[in-house]
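Q: Structure for this?
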Amino acid sequence: MEKITLLAPISALTALVFAAYLAWKVMRLPQGNALMVKISGAIRKGANAYLRIQYRGVALFFGGMFIILIVLASFKFLTPFVPFAFLTGGFFSGLSGFIGMKIATAANARTANAAGKCLDSGLQVAFSSGAVMGFVVVGLGLLDISIWFYFLNFWYGSVRIIADEALRIQAITSAMLTFGMGASSMALFARVGGGIFTKAADVGADLVGKVEAGIPEDDPRNPAVIADNVGDNVGDVAGMGADLYESYVGSIVATGALAVAAGHGFKGVAIPMVMAAIGILASILGTFFVKTKENADQKTLLMALRRGVWLSAVVIAIAAFPLVYYMLGKENIGVYGAVLSGLMAGILIGYFTEYYTSDTYKPTQNLARASQTGPATIIISGLSLGMLSTLFPVLVVCVSIYVSYHVSGGGTSFDHGLFGIGLSAVGMLSTLGITLATDAYGPVADNAGGIAEMAHLGKEVRARTDALDSLGNTTAATGKGFAIGSAALTALALIASYVDQIKIIKPEYVFDLSITNPNVLIGLFIGGMLPFLFSSLTMNAVGRAAMSIVYEVRRQFKEIIGLMEGTAEPDYETCVAICTKAAQREMIVPALLAIVFPLGVGLLLGVNGVAGLLAGATVTGFILAVMMANSGGAWDNAKKYIESGELGGKGSDAHKAAVVGDTVGDPFKDTAGPSINILIKLLSMASIVFATLIVKFSLVK
Amino acid sequence: MEKITLLAPISALTALVFAAYLAWKVMRLPQGNALMVKISGAIRKGANAYLRIQYRGVALFFGGMFIILIVLASFKFLTPFVPFAFLTGGFFSGLSGFIGMKIATAANARTANAAGKCLDSGLQVAFSSGAVMGFVVVGLGLLDISIWFYFLNFWYGSVRIIADEALRIQAITSAMLTFGMGASSMALFARVGGGIFTKAADVGADLVGKVEAGIPEDDPRNPAVIADNVGDNVGDVAGMGADLYESYVGSIVATGALAVAAGHGFKGVAIPMVMAAIGILASILGTFFVKTKENADQKTLLMALRRGVWLSAVVIAIAAFPLVYYMLGKENIGVYGAVLSGLMAGILIGYFTEYYTSDTYKPTQNLARASQTGPATIIISGLSLGMLSTLFPVLVVCVSIYVSYHVSGGGTSFDHGLFGIGLSAVGMLSTLGITLATDAYGPVADNAGGIAEMAHLGKEVRARTDALDSLGNTTAATGKGFAIGSAALTALALIASYVDQIKIIKPEYVFDLSITNPNVLIGLFIGGMLPFLFSSLTMNAVGRAAMSIVYEVRRQFKEIIGLMEGTAEPDYETCVAICTKAAQREMIVPALLAIVFPLGVGLLLGVNGVAGLLAGATVTGFILAVMMANSGGAWDNAKKYIESGELGGKGSDAHKAAVVGDTVGDPFKDTAGPSINILIKLLSMASIVFATLIVKFSLVK
């Protein structure tokens, strides 16, 4: 075994230590005055309550799945490690989200308080807490991979010895692949459940609070305001963390598995791990370059974050060259191009997302203008903007596929090309530590703004938290673009791994993955439809849950005497409980879809049909997710643009229309859109785990 | 040559004679009072003006393309017939729309007038004029096919003799295939241009008239009201006619071409033509069963139309059995199952469309209820409804693909299976004569309602025209479902034909249509994105054009003294001119996309990439089109549901929210959605026509 693979656990532990250090730095800061402590405590309490209930539900699911997998493994349909790998994947994915949320809910009041000093102090606290989550995700991800890697190496090298190196590596990577399914399942629950929670609370709070009662956003009299702030944490932090944990782990493991088929042997398996390790170190370095001055405008603030990400990317780009050269030799140096194309694609997708969703560019400004003729035109324009915005991300992904396939030797060997595609996903995700930091920063800043508002902090402080919050909207949008792009590339790597797995299970199987094969074609249609179905279910869930919140808030305004006057306190906890319950109930069907469809299609249409399903879902899912994220982001920022005083400002008819756009965009960008990321990965993961079952029992051989 | 093929031209001429008879029957009816004559005249004048300008623009395009094709043909990249076939396809497609629109604009006042007598009279006039268009489309379509079929048979049989029968049939079908591109191009202009016109006028008229000036729909004081009524004709009649002409011709010709590869020889080529001929006769029969009683409710009225369609379908189902038996022999009787599956699929898709869009079912009623919490929730629910509604149509199409492939012998021979898929499209479209009649009936009834309103006809008359109009909404929605479903199956047949054509052009070409081939994968992504891009462009076009109408209507209300009081007349013509100009300008880019993308992808990624592009576009296009059509239809009917007095009725807040939903739905269901049908067919057609060019000059061999 190569010594260089030791870099993986070392970097993973470094990331965790660094995260602990940042967490310590944040935690020793003061939370501010008593009111701030109280509000932050309420948010924390709500978030904890939510996660406790969610994890209880998820534990049931994992328990059930564990038993099913044990049974399947005992019939030899799975290797004996799968059930345990499934559990660890789920556990670490959930833990990433949990820790991220813990620190985020601890940092919100501290950010607001630090913003009382100066803008940079506020930025530092919020960013540091985001970075805790970023490094926890990459640290736990790479640690999990390393542990399994070393354990399986030991197992197949010393206990159940597989003498042939190629076969041994294959056994190792196959077993590792399956633990991604645990991470995916966990991520799905976190994303979908959190997404439903956050938007039900947000939409519900806005519909009654802003529209009916006419009180401002984040007003403490609104009974749903704490639920709204809790939602930011459980959806945008815990959900996002679990999602990207899964992409990160999935891309590394899938690429390792593809390396075997490409004949790169042990070094090929190690390279994505080491790439990830380098990425962690580069990301840590990058965090030190994030700082700003007082009175910085949005552009300067954004540059402060960008500087860190770009620096990390450059370091990775430089370090990857000798790495590839050393590991795979001069003849495979083209693989370096695959890493670069992935890195570039991540940055470009982020750029295009920003272009289409930030109000410093024309598309969102024009969208804001469409609000002048009422809600209908801003909705039409926003949907249209989202659809148009899919063009460049699709082209970027296509170029990335093309380049990474060909520079890695796809022209002469198919498997080499697929390995290249996998590595481009790893390349894109190598900056995850810091990218996720800038992304998870958003909800903390958002919460800080809410606390500043609720605690009636000074105008200057609120101007600072507003600036930080507004920046968070942009980074959240680009973060979503990054999450979707990496999910698409990861899903492609997983599809290739799926095909590989079938070859291992049944070497004599003759594939017909041609799009003129009706089974593939039907798979494409069904797969293409799934993201639509999935989005419909999750958006409906938000609508239903939001409705319950509306009724509850109306009830409280009616029944609690003195609430509107500010002399009585609302009952925040009921709203949190309603959202929690709704999220738990509504996340079950979407989760089952992602497991039932590949199994069902596999049993009815065979291996080729499943491949069609996966390709269809990945293509449509990617496009739909980009559209929803960008429409939603642009509506949000168009509203903010008007609130900044343009086109009549707050309270104008244009503003009212823009609020409608924003409300429609909420479930788009924070529930349905990001959930699709997981859907496409979980579909592939489920297909891989159940591959033996499908090969054995499918009606179509 | 089989004598039975003579049935094709005979049926085609019968259809045309029948259409002429119906037209004569409609035309000899009185138009009503002077005001009605005047209004109808204004609509007719506007529609004619629009079509004149559109055909002038289209003529330029066709002239240019003709020259390009002549050049390509002279370099032997195309057979010499292609340029002429292209022209005739375009000419007949345009003519279908033109005649349909002529009769529709002549029948509107007559329908209103007949409704003065009784409900059935009104229904008869509107349905007869719809039937004129239905039978003109199928008559001209089958006539065009017959003429080319006989001419090419004569040419290759007597002039440039190809002795080998198989090669001769191949030469004939190849040449015939290409004239579908002419029909497609024409259809695109008609659908996109008409779609932009109609919704710009509709949205613009509603935004100022209903919302700002507070005058009812179809109020003669609204300067955009004539443009709105013109739009119904140029979009929903002329556009729809050209669209379905193209599906009809495309499916017959593509299936004929597939018959050659399947080795069914001459009889296989003849069978889709004869199937179509039987369909025409069955449809004519069906029209005699459409009648209703006075005081019929919506359900009874709908049944009146349904009876005709179902009867035709049953006749076709019975007649197809001996036909298949006689033509292809007992050993191929399974092909009959393909025809049946197509017929059934058409009816089922219509049913599911109705279920999701009619206010007699729960989905639309629930949607209406979502309007009670404002425009945002009805938009979210409507989008969600549309997404959910894709599930069953996708499954129906998948079952149809599966069944028609396998019953036709796909299990043993791939080409037999594809021929079966083609025949299922032909089976679905065999009822087109009468299906289109029920569909084109809608705009006539809509116009009649408008004229009744503007001419201040009695309350009873308006109640009858309202009933007819409301029925038209349902048939328009199911008609759209039918158009989309048939477009998807036709596109699949065309993709198969494309692959066939490549085999003919370069028999030694080794396909790799596997979804793991990066070129195919990239094609899938780009193809999948195209319907989104296309929809964005067309919706934006509507938005821009509607804005111009808003400004113009506002200007007239301000500058024309006495307009609001009804003492002065508005300037209808300027609004018509604005819409016309906008439609012409805005349809160019989408049309170019459909030709540039397959060429570009072909040159960069080769034959396999193009196949991926076509598959991706067909899958996403079908799903997106269904979603848009159903969301739009449901919003429209949710509004009508409220207007019928539910949930507070007209003028309530719920109604205002529902109007927003309806306005968003307008470009969905009448511009972007239906345009996608053509996009997916035109992409395939363009790929077929430029196949030689791509094979020769592609960077990827």
